[in-house]
């Protein structure tokens, strides 16, 4: 029996780097072009959801699907930004929403694909960004001349800070300072955030200058404290904006690492270093090179590693191999973070949305790509049959029944998805024992990280020394 469709459909494909997302997107779009549908959906448009592939050029380092493999399928939001242009999630959601509207108007099905899972999450489940897409201005255009007046909460917080802090708030830098090069500036921004909004500040380390500055900019631009924005958002369950069929392409970690290493070697064969050289040639000599590591396309994995190698006055084969290994490690870590985001954020959001009113639906299916020989049956054909059932408004199977990997990875304990709970679950605390220099405090996240830290040799050593000192001074047997 067909279910009534209340929302327009989108297909999303997420997953770690190197699992074959771009390939599946093209296969689905080609299949969409061939189908006949009583609802009229025919053809697909690929909407890029990879935060590095939005940049122009640098196709090797950003892993863009080569033109030859796009099979004539339209790819939008790919290669549209200049190398150092800032492009934040709210801007992407704004642009993707327009691209999806355009696709729907021509009865095409948007296939949103990319490794930046939080882009997809904020697109599919709106209402959880501190700055909503409507408020986003192009980073090249001047800031809005009038900003909304500060809320009572922000006003009260502003009235309690020192004049120095107030001056800093009124003239926030546009580019975050480097914590390594300018620890003083970094800590000042952190202290300002802490004074204005302690709940949000304790989520970050003072070295996370990009996040710290971003939170301050949001307060300046919205007139609201970020924790107050989160509190307002937490009072509602996010409902999907579209009828959303989400595919999570998955590979067992060991197999994925093996494939990523092969891909890194292939990228090096494919002149990865030319991309790095070109990026280096665009850098301003007056600017500290580490500032580039958090700017635009310069954040692509491989740039930092080979920039270091190419800057070396005496390069050697051994140093080259070190760079290769560092890039491989960075890829492994990135893949791990991507998988953990999907499992711990996206999947719970899909599950929580089922409680939302209005007959809207979002479903996530894990497709296991671990066996490369089984792509056609375990990935492509399965995805096509699920997509057909979804577009024809037929009932869909239970996602847990598709494979053993699906059963394991999709069975996540129910957890709080509202922003306030997430914020409070990840507080950073200063370790007074390990902090030698007050101007550069040692901060550790509470919970598992803190437990591991408290058991670490260095902490125990310093603690013993500290207790020893106190003992000496307390008993008065010290020489001082
Ligand atoms: Zn410590």
Automatic annotation (TrEMBL):
PANTHER family in the cross-refs: TRNA DIMETHYLALLYLTRANSFERASE (PTHR11088:SF89)
Single GO term (MF): ATP binding
GO BP: tRNA modification
GO cellular component: mitochondrion
Cited Pfam families: IPPT
Keywords, sorted A to Z: ATP-binding, Nucleotide-binding, Transferase
The family this protein is said to belong to: Belongs to the IPP transferase family.
Protein name: tRNA isopentenyltransferase
């Amino acid at each position: 029996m067909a279910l009534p469709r209340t929302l327009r459909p989108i297909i999303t494909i997420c997953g770690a780097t190197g699992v074959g997302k771009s390939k599946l997107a093209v296969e689905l779009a080609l299949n969409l072009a061939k189908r006949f549908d009583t609802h009229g959906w025919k053809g697909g448009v690929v909407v890029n959801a990879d935060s590095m592939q939005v940049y122009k050029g640098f196709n090797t380092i950003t892993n863009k699907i080569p033109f030859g493999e796009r099979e004539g399928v339209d790819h939008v939001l790919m290669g549209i930004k200049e190398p150092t242009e800032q492009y934040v999630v709210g801007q992407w959601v704004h642009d993707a929403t327009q691209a999806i509207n355009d696709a729907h108007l021509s009865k095409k099905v948007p296939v949103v694909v990319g490794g930046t899972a939080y882009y997809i999450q904020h697109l599919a489940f709106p209402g959880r960004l501190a700055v909503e897409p409507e408020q986003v201005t192009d980073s090249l255009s001047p800031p809005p001349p009038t900003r909304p007046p500060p809320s009572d909460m922000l006003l009260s917080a502003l009235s309690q800070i020192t004049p120095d802090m107030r001056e800093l708030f009124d003239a926030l830098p546009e580019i975050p300072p480097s914590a390594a090069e300018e620890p003083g500036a970094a800590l000042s921004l952190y202290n300002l955030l802490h004074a204005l909004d302690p709940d949000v500040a304790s989520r970050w380390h003072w070295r996370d200058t990009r996040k710290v500055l971003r939170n301050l900019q949001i307060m300046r631009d919205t007139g609201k404290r970020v924790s107050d924005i989160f509190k307002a958002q937490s009072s509602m369950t996010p409902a999907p904006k579209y009828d959303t069929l989400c595919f999570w392409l998955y590979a067992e970690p060991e197999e994925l690492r093996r494939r990523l290493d092969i891909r890194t070697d292939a990228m090096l064969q494919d002149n990865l270093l030319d991309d790095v050289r070109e990026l280096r040639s665009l850098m301003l000599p007056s600017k500290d090179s580490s500032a580039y590591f958090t700017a635009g396309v310069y954040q692509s994995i491989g740039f930092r590693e080979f920039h270091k190698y190419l800057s070396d006055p005496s390069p050697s084969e051994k140093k080259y191999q070190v760079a290769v290994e560092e890039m491989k490690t960075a890829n492994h870590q990135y893949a791990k973070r991507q998988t953990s985001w999907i499992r711990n954020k996206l999947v719970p959001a899909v599950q929580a949305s089922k409680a939302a009113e209005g007959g809207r639906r979002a479903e996530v299916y894990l497709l296991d790509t671990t066996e490369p020989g089984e792509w056609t049956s375990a990935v492509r054909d399965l995805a096509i049959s699920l997509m057909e059932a979804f577009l024809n408004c037929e009932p869909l199977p239970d996602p847990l029944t598709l494979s053993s990997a699906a059963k394991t990875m999709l069975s996540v304990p129910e957890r709080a998805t509202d922003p306030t709970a997430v914020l409070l679950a990840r507080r950073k605390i200063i370790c007074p024992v390990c902090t030698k220099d007050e101007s550069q405090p040692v901060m550790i996240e509470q919970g598992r990280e803190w437990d591991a830290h408290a058991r670490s040799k260095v902490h125990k050593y310093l603690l013993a020394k500290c207790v020893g000192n106190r003992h000496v001074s307390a008993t008065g047997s010290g020489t001082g």
